[in-house]
Amino acid sequence: MTQKKDFIGKEATFVSKSTTLPVGMKRFDKGPYFDFYHKEDNLYGVYAERFYPISLGNDTEEMYWNLRRKAVMYDTPEKPIQIEGPQAGEFLDKVFSRKISTMNVGRGRYAIACYEDGGIFIDGVFFRLEENKYWYVQPDGPLETWLKAHQANYNVKISDPSSRSIQIQGPKSQEILSKLTNGSLDENFKYYHSGFFEIAGQKVYISRTGWTAELGYEIYSLGGDTNYKKLWNTILEIGKPLGLHFDGILSMEMRRIEGGILDSNTDFDSSMNPFEAGLGRLVDLDKDDFIGKKALVELSKKSGKRLFGIISEKAFKYKSNVYLSNDEVVGYLPASTWSPTLKKYIGYVRFNYSGKWTDFKVRAESLDDSFIDCEVVELPFYDKDKLIPRGKDTTIP
After folding, report:
1. What percent of the chain clears pLDDT 90, i.e. is strictly above it?
2. Is the pTM of this model over 0.90?
3. What is the CATH number of the domain that holds 92?
């Protein structure tokens, strides 16, 4: 990996100004798709012990608009962990704060796990592949170790299915997936549905989910049973005539921030509980005892929200502090970007304590170290009811 100058598309401000360092691949997984797009000047990150492309040298804003108007494909590093066995559902109900055993086969469910003190350990999406087999697609973090540490006498097996995901996101994604599956996947495959399909003569697992707040899908490989070259070539062969492009995560980052999608250990961490992060809906306090329930019952009575959106006319300094008018530091920005749709600079602000922050005007630091006045808003920045990923808003900007 070579050091490179700012490659931020137009006015995007996602990339840190910190030094880029070469990183050896010995302890990390470069993934089965890596060699299909690798170039010497690509920029990569490491997530869940997997390399993923941050920048491929594309114009970020151009790729963003292709995502919003057509479709973009991403090689993403999120890692499925498999939990199976006759007590899998019961075990997962114990470990996670949301009821998992009530999921139907062929469905997905966003869920979090918490520490005993109520702090958030991890977030991710469950899929129920069979009656007694689940996948939890995790972000960065030691989930497999955590599950095994709490396995106790539950009759379950916890393993890594060696699956890699490709995301195809954007309004053309449904047409692309329909052609890839010879019509097997159609409009009846709804938001958070999942199941086995065949692409290029081989079985894959597909979910209608993603990290862009657009209509989109994720294609999961089946480990050593997958011919990755054939899968990759088939996706591009079918997708390119419909406007599909391949990109690094920068364009996805723009859209996920607009859509209010959170990144574990960036936008929230173990110092926050679900209610502070706006994830209280993922805590089912009515179910039987689970890890952190006692603390979460008490926290639900007194915790207010600490995570909000922030809007500015000028670019934010990377991880800027946030101030009140009296120069008191009241929070900071874990993530920010340029919004091509809103034509504003936007970000998340994690306040040091809860409050009705939308009633306040705050200031942040700009790229030139001056102060900028900002508006605090509820997340997401638009499409509050998620009509776009649900396919109910088909307006193309």
Report:
1. 87
2. yes
3. 3.30.1360.120
